[in-house]
Structures are given as C-alpha cells and as structure tokens.
Amino acid sequence: MEISIQLSQVTKSFKTKYQRVDLFKGLNLDIQKGEFVVILGPSGSGKTTLLYLMAGFIKPDSGSIVVDGQEIAKLNENEICRYRNQKIGFIFQFFNLIHSFNAKDNVLVPLLLAGVDKHKAEQRANELLEQVGMSHRKNHYPWELSGGEQQRVAIARALANSPSIILADEPTGNLDQKTGETILELLSDIHHKEGKTIVVATHDMKIMKRATRIYDMETLISA
Ligand SMILES: Nc1ncnc2c1ncn2[C@@H]1O[C@H](COP(=O)(O)OP(=O)(O)OP(=O)(O)O)[C@@H](O)[C@H]1O
Ligand SMILES: [Mg+2]
Questions:
Q1: How many structural domains does the chain have?
Q2: Is the alpha carbon torsion for 21, 57, 63, 1 positive or negative?
Q3: Ligand 1: which of 20, 47, 218 to mutate, judged by most atoms within 8 Å of the beta carbon?
Q4: How far apart are CA 219 and CA 99, in angstroms?
Q5: Position 175 pLDDT exceeds 90
Q6: How many CB atoms neighbour CB 198 within 10 A?
Q7: Beta bridge pairs of residue 44
Q8: 33-76 pLDDT, tens per residue?
Q9: H or E, element range at 188
Q10: Are strands 36-40 and 213-216 parallel, antiparallel or unpaired?
Q11: The CATH number of the domain where 47 resides is what?
C-alpha cells in the first residue's frame, strides 16, 4: 500500500484575544491511497481543523504533512493554491458555491484556474454535471437549487481537475436523510470506480458503514 496523506507530530494551537486552545499536541495519522476514511469526534474536537490542515487552508505550528510525497507545510501561497487546485477536492458542509455564478460556471472555475482552455473546460463541466445528475439544472444559480442539488454541484466542482484526494467536511450534515443517501452513493461510487482517497468528517452512521477505516479524534489527539 502506498501512503496518500501522512501527518507526523503535528501541533496546532489557536490564540484568540482571551484564550489559547492547544488543539493538536503531536498528532500522527497515515492514510493509504484509495482508502475511504471517516473521522469521528464530538463538536470542537478538531475534525474541520484536521481537514483544513490536509487541504492547506491552514498551516501546522510544527510537524509535517506529506501528501503524495510532497511536504505541504513548506509550500508558499502560490504552490499551495496549485496543490489545492490539482490534488484536492474539498466538499463543505454548507456547499460554498459562488452565489453569483450558475451551476456550470461554479464547476468551470477550478478548470479555468488550472489553465484548461475554455472549450475543453466547458466539455468537462458538462460531463461532471452529468456524472452527478445535475445536467438539467446547469443554468440554475445556487439559490435556485435545493440543498442536495447544491451539494451535487459542489461535488462536481471538487472533481473538476481529477484530484486524487477528496476531503469532505460533514457533506450530508445539512441534508435530509434521503438526500444525504444520494450524496453518499455518489461519494461511494467515486471511491469504487475512481479509486480516490476519501476523507470524510461526519457523525452520519450511514457514511461510517462505507468506511475502510474509522478514526476517532479523541484517540488521534491522545495517541
Ligand atoms: N480560527 C480559529 N481561531 C480560534 N479557535 C479556533 C479556530 N478554528 C478552530 N478553533 C477552535 O478549535 C477547536 C476545534 O474546531 P473544529 O472546527 O476543528 O472542530 P470540529 O470537530 O470540526 O467541530 P464541529 O463538529 O462542531 O464541526 C474548537 O474549540 C474551536 O473553537
Ligand atoms: Mg467541523
């Protein structure tokens, strides 16, 4: 097995005006290529922070985060943007679509940022929307879509540049059970057919059943 994501001795504290939170004091975690990992833990245990560290949205105070052999904690701002654009697909609890862009344009953004030519990008965006079953709503703006539809567009966007890693932060947390299941089917499908590494922070029992490995934040932190 090949390692996809490796966190070694990662520390992270947050300082606010009144308080200092020492969240991770030497966290170690290895995720193999092609795994479907579920991260569990109560509110405030650091699930989102962990995913943000992996995506390079935030940096650790010390320790290393190696993704596909590359030390991402050392990348500069441009390199980290490229890393995120090419290697990571991030799915948010609240979808985070760009509100002034329709569904198709939301999917086009990462493609155009990657320098894909307009015509090819359009083709790819159409394919992706087809894959998530959203072709019939591609001209709709986010507010003209249901929650589940917005999340499907967000998944299409996350897949745009064929990232090897999908990070999802409570992707079904804001959806009713049935809609959550369709999103879960989609993630499961991506895992099986495309062999991507998937890391999901969730409380959803149904997602846990699909996992190849489950980590509890509390054991990760105290280990
Ligand atoms: N930017 C920040 N500044 C200060 N404190 C922060 C910051 N980000 C996170 N924290 C603190 O770190 C802790 C972990 O937050 P995080 O969002 O990672 O938890 P979580 O496990 O995702 O929780 P939830 O299940 O509610 O989403 C919390 O106590 C939070 O207050
Ligand atoms: Mg969270």
A1: 1
A2: positive
A3: 47
A4: 39
A5: no
A6: 26
A7: none
A8: 999 999 999 899 999 999 999 999 999 999 999 999 999 989 99
A9: helix 177-194
A10: parallel
A11: 3.40.50.300
